[in-house]
Amino acid sequence: MKIGIPQALIYWKRPFFWETFFQELGFDVLLSPKTNKEIIEVGTKISDPETCFSNKVYFGHLKWLEGKVDLVFVPRLKTNQEKLEYCPKFFGLPDLAKILLKTKILTQEFDEKKKSFQQSIIELGEKLKRKEKETRKALEKALFQEGILKEKAKEHFFEKIHSERKKIVLISHPYNLYDEFTNLRVKERLEKLNIEPIFIDEVPSSPLQGQAFAIQFHWEFGKEMMEKIEEVLKYPLSGAIQISSFACGCDAVLKEFVEKSFKEKNIPFLYLIIDEHTGEAGFQTRLEAFVDTL
Amino acid sequence: MNQKSLKTYLGIDIGSLTIKFVLIDEKAEVLYWKYERTGGRPVEAIKNGLKKVKDWIESHNPQIEICGVGTTGSGRYLIGSIVGADVIKNEITAHAKGVTHFVPEAKTVIEIGGQDSKIIILENGVVVDFALNYLCSAGTGAFLDAQAFRLGIPIEKFGEMALKSKNPTQIASRCSVFAESDMIHKQQIGHKIEDIIAGLCQGLARNYLAGVGKGKKILPPIVFLGGVSENVGMRWAFREALGQEIIVPKYNTVMGAFGVALLVKEMAPQNTKFRGFEISDKEIECDSFQCSGCPNKCEVIQAKIEGKIVARWGDRCGKWSNLRYD
Lengths: 294, 326
Description:
By secondary structure, chain A is α/β, with parallel strands linked by helices. Chain A has helices spanning 17-24, 37-46, 53-65, 88-91, 93-100, 117-127, 132-161, 174-177, 186-192, 220-232, 249-263, 280-293; strands at 2-5, 28-31, 71-73, 76-79, 104-106, 109-111, 166-171, 195-199, 239-245, 269-274. Chain A is globular. Chain B has three domains: 6-95 and 257-282, Nucleotidyltransferase, domain 5 (2-Layer Sandwich); 105-248, ATPase, nucleotide binding domain (Nucleotidyltransferase, domain 5, 2-Layer Sandwich), CATH 3.30.420; 283-326, no CATH class. Chain B is globular and about 60 Å long. The two termini of chain B are 25 Å apart. Classes of the chains: A alpha/beta, B alpha/beta.
């Protein structure tokens, strides 16, 4: 049996985790390819115009998997370990996927207000007719793989933060940072301008220090982002760039906090919005001009 | 090289609607400048423009030697590869460079061109913040152009008309489309043309400050540039809205070209990459093809001089644009 995973949006919250987990359970896994023009075109066509760009991209990936696998995995992410909510757009993904695809959808709710992550994972295993013992073993393997990745990210961060080049921290959701097509290869563009781009999600931080925050966070990514920003501000930075998907409601709120934290420290800040129409020329002009101001 | 030759630097700013040329000498004095419409044909515009520069040189001072060329504006890469530019610089940096030459203490730059508008915040002559219009071009030159045409008033007279108004009409100007329908409505219920035009200028200034200028500290001295800065109605509207003097320096419409000319002059290239004025007479062609290397199917554009490819761009992966063509 083959399980398909769309390589977009929620995938980037835990890359390698899900594919390792399903493979350990003895399934074949097919990841949709990296985002390309066709995927975006398909996603945009089937989406409601008010949907944010990142969700449109996700729908394109879902469609790509249709008919190529036996099951498409679309988890319902509701709250995390700290009982903070995920983006509300994630809640309805399995329902939308069921409408959009003829291929069967495999889903599982993750709501830690109700159930621990482990319990939910075991339920997922049961749906695939796997015993608890097998599921636990697969989970362990998947967490191990994820741990290696996080270690690497940390090393990567320390390597870059000590670079001789000017450092710009890129703030966005992982699905924008790691999707080169949607972010118009911002990393490569900055490197060509002799800049060391640092991804915010590579910044090591421990969730505990978040208790010191004055703001009560509603969204998990908001808290995580602000914690990492607090951490990264301990290092010398030349600038910060925040990238939002067009029509992202959560970022509209979050942006103000992000911008404030850099402006308070007199660190130049640039805000960029990406969507299916983003012109490369305007994007490049903004980056070049921003780098010139540093 | 001739002993008596005069070293000069050429700056070219190619925007969405217009092309600007500025020729400066080693003392940064402007010898020649030109502001022209491209008619949507940038390659033709560059050929004609260069011919005019050449004619001017021949009739005024044949000793002039071009020691460097810089391009800026949204078409900077295209034009840069055709003419052989030594410097290709974004329009924010180019404008800031130009402005600080004339108004060294400038703190705010308002620039409104054909299809875009920008704000630049300077501190001690250094750009510290900027913004460009996003997703909306209300209030830019193209819109004013269209409205002037619709009202049958030459664009050059538009500003003067606005100044005649004693009672500007309120025009909904959050969006060009709504502004136009509101203008038509106000005309139909009997408002004077000059009041409507004045109201439009006020609305556009408001729209600019609320959109592009959002969250920026607009401190004096304030410099106003770009094609729209020629419009005295818009100057008045900004002065009213900001309660500050608005400085419109010399060469206000060609400041980007001047700035990039200054940048080349400072760089002082040993051997300029400039292909020479002969390119005006050569056959320059741009065409495109769809790359079939991957599902992205990029539209790759190529510029050819006399059939020889000089540059390619438009590909996402760099497979075509990173090739060397010289």
